[in-house]
Amino acid sequence: MSVLPATAEEAADLLAQQNRLELPTYTHQDAWDLGSTLVRLARESGAPVAIDLRRGLQQVFHAALPGSTADNDDWLARKRRVVERYGESSLLVGTRFRAKGTTFEDASRLDPSRYAAHGGVLPVLVRGVSGPVGTIGVSGLPQVEDHALVVAALEQYVAGRR
Question: What is the average pLDDT across 121-128?
């Protein structure tokens, strides 16, 4: 697997992006609406992704679009565990390790069969609440594209809720 180079500035940009995507609320209905937005965006681009949204530990939305496989669900679980452990997006965590000149796999001391710091899962942040209240993720595209698809859905959803 090739390692993407990263800088501290890229990590700072990802953190700022993550923090500006706070939701006003995150109910079961919000998860359904947000997941539906992700499905629509993925279908529009023909993305063969699996989609997973959690509230706490409960899976509240899942979709597997044509072309996705059970491997995508495994990747989602591995990336989600990184977000649950670090409280930050899976891409941000991996980027921070690379910015330090190493990799998550080499330096985290976590089992790579259970944890993957690859882009595609973000924490769900709610305005006025400390820390993540859930996760939102996709898997099936290259990691930066997985991340970008989730960000696009969150941006549309947040813009519609203002």
Answer: 96
What contacts 66, CB < 8 A, 6 or more positions away?
48
- Comparing 59 with 8, which gets the higher pLDDT? 59
- Provide CB contacts within 8 A for 156, sequence distance 6+: 37, 41
Beta bridge partners of 17: none
Joined together, the tokens standing for residue 28 give 């079961």
Q: How far apart are CA 15 and CA 63, in angstroms?
A: 27
pTM: 0.93
Quick one: pLDDT band at residue 151, thresholds 50, 70, 90?
Answer: very high
For residues 54 and 134, give the distance between their C-alpha atoms in angstroms, rounded to a whole number: 5
Exposure string of 34-65, with b = 16+ CB inside 10 Å and e = fewer, is bbebbbebbeeeebebbbbbbbeeeebbebbb
Share of the chain above pLDDT 90, in %: 88
Which alpha helices (H) appear in the chain, and where do they start and end?
8-20, 28-45, 70-86, 90-99, 104-107, 143-161
Rounded to whole angstroms, the Cα distance separating 113 from 133 reads: 25
